[in-house]
Amino acid sequence: MELSKDFIELMTSALGREQAELLFQALETSPEISIRQNRVKCQEYDRCCGMVLSERVPWASDAWYLPERPSFILDPQFHAGTYYVQEASSMFLEQALKTVVKGPVKALDLCAAPGGKSTHLCQLLPEGSVIVSNEINRTRARILAENIVKWGRPASVVTSNSPKQIGQSGLRFDLMVVDAPCSGEGMFRKDPVAVQEWSLANVEMCAQRQREIITDVWPALKPGGYLVYSTCTFNTNEDEGIVRWLIEEMGAEPVSIPAQAEWGITGSLVPDLEAPVYHFMQHRTRGEGFFMALLRKPQDELTEPVQRVFRLRKDPVPSDMKTWLQGDFVYENEGDAIYAYPSGQSDFMHQVSASLFALVKGVQIGRMKGRDIIPAHALSMCQALDASRFERVEITERQAVDYLHGDAIQTPDAPRGIVLLCFNGVPIGFAKNLGNRANNLYPEEWRIRKSVV
Questions:
Q1: Which of 61, 78, 155, 250 shows the greatest Cβ crowding within 10 Å of its Cβ?
Q2: Is the separation of the CB atoms in 391 and 419 below 8 Å?
Q3: Are 273 and 312 contacting, i.e. CB atoms less than 8 angstroms apart?
Q4: CA distances from 49 to 53, 286, 397 (A)
Q5: Using CA atoms, how far apart are residues 91 and 394, in angstroms rounded to an integer?
Q6: What is the pLDDT of residues 65-80, one digit of tens each?
């Protein structure tokens, strides 16, 4: 790896020559591979992709290092949402949430694609919380939507809006996660393009963009609410510099996150910054480069009046469909599609989807097709699914991969009609069994493109 002379000088100045050399050496090594399991869906907590899991990520629950990188794309359990492939350092979000979240919250993950922190929020936030995952880029937002649907938490909304649109929407959140676009120094050993594109000018441009993003979205954070600010870079312009600006210009109050010494986290690289910050560097921690700070918005900050509440109308749906989910839900018809929202969170979720451009809102449970009711794939992924309401068909790994590839599979012993296909007891999707074969109902845009032999 050929590092920029400016980058070498920048890190040597920040870390000292000895520590900087150790970092540069670590950037030449292979990246760690780590996953985080979905406790609601995962059936085998000590295994993944045929491998025995033995090394835990110490700062995150249900998270493991893998000894090697398997073919995730050909693992049916990956597509079923039983785990998420996530960089270990970024899972430190769990410690920030444990510090400040004591009850249900309305949370916004602003720059959420592809979905690592959002699925982590879905895993960690208590019942009664709503998670809004936003991504301004529509292509990346569709990937985010797929991952949120697969994780399966019903109280989720995926949007694709600018920070300014959210800040002006009248929506208010108790918790905001901003994993800001950055120069990507922490990802150098995973992303050669980031190495080639790095420059001091790009660092300054990123820092300016980060300030603009936070300024635009700041009105959407409630007074007294918490901001988790993070990047995947090392330099102090984009890290400590933004934290200092938040304190001095926005009145934010820094909050300490408990961390254990053996985790190898590095503190501030700016001696006169009196705020707790957390650097993950490859020569000291098992993960990629990452930075995090936790801050609280002033309690007495004046805000504009909150936008009026959009109340969800409660549409009638066929009685059978109301039995497909466990728990208390309200339903909405939109054309031929039917959506379900957890009843306690339905009004706020509807307010979000009415105020912003929503790709996912609650759980799409099905469509009316003439007199037929076709269950949606999102229903099969939902953690609240009552699988006993469908004919379950356990299929082999090969059949599951064929199904995910978009192929018709044979289920001769299953009854005719809609069946719920399962692999290792976990639903992977619906099919319509015709006797000699089963029509594939897996979403076409999610299908495995890789050749299956």
A1: 155
A2: yes
A3: no
A4: 10, 21, 11
A5: 33
A6: 999 999 999 999 999 9
pLDDT tens digits, one per residue of 357-407: 999 999 999 998 877 889 999 999 999 999 999 999 999 999 999 999 999
CA 151/CA 383 separation, integer angstroms: 8
pTM attached to this predicted model: 0.95
What is the sign, positive or negative, of the torsion defined by CA atoms of 155, 158, 163, 168?
negative
* Per-residue pLDDT tens over the stretch 151-207: 999 999 999 999 999 999 999 999 999 999 999 999 999 999 999 999 999 999 999
Q: Give 285-348 as a 3 state SS string.
A: CCCCCEEEEEEECCCCCCCCCCCCCCCCCCCCCCHHHHHCECCCEEEEEECCEEEEEEHHHHHH
Question: How far is it between the farthest Cα atoms of the chain?
Answer: 73
Closest alpha carbon to 165 in 329, 317, 322, 352: 352
Contact 411, 439 (CB under 8 A): no
Mean pLDDT over residues 255-270, rounded? Answer: 97
Residue 12 has pLDDT above 60, yes or no: yes
Q: In this structure, what is the dihedral angle of CA atoms 302, 135, 192, 59, given to the nearest 10 degrees?
A: 70
Quick check: 438 pLDDT over 90?
Answer: no
